[in-house]
Specification:
- The strands form two sheets. Strands 2, 4, 5, 6, 9, 10 and 11 form a seven-stranded mixed sheet that branches.
- Helix content is 0%, strand content 49%.
- The chain has no helices and eleven strands.
- It is mainly beta.
- It has strands at residues 3-7, 10-13, 18-25, 33-39, 46-51, 58-60, 68-73, 78-83, 92-99, 113-114, 118-123.
Length: 124
């Protein structure tokens, strides 16, 4: 019912920046919470950031706090992950996800819809 498509990934040097976008189709994202997760080769998927729908409150993993920001544009039905001061350890496939209950959470199992992922590679 909801399709999510990530974009904006690519190759960037350490200390550089990228902005990932998560565009929704099928229905509006306005009442959904949106989360970002990432998965590196051989590693489990981990939480990165999330934003609620009701008040746009946010949460971040300790590993990205102070470097990444999450936002959303309700009118454009799109969420964003701004990544600054990138490090090689940020290299991963990044996924966006939507939670119909509208509550930002670090638990991946709470999310109902997932995008296909976009590759982010940070060189040293």
């Amino acid at each position: 019912q909801v399709q999510l498509v990530e974009s904006g990934g690519g190759l960037v040097q350490a200390a550089g920046s990228l902005r990932l976008s998560c565009a929704a189709s099928g229905r509006t994202l306005s009442r959904y919470a949106v989360g970002w997760f990432r998965q590196a080769p051989g590693k489990e998927r981990e939480f990165v950031a999330a934003i609620s729908w009701s008040d746009d409150s946010t949460a971040f993993a300790d590993s990205v706090k102070g470097r990444f920001t999450i936002s959303r544009d309700h009118a454009k039905n799109t969420a964003y992950l701004q990544m600054n001061s990138l490090k090689p350890e940020d290299t991963a496939v990044y996924y966006c996800a939507a939670d119909r209950w509208g509550k930002a959470t670090i638990d991946a199992s709470a999310y109902d819809y997932w995008g296909q992922g976009t590759q982010v590679t940070v060189s040293s």
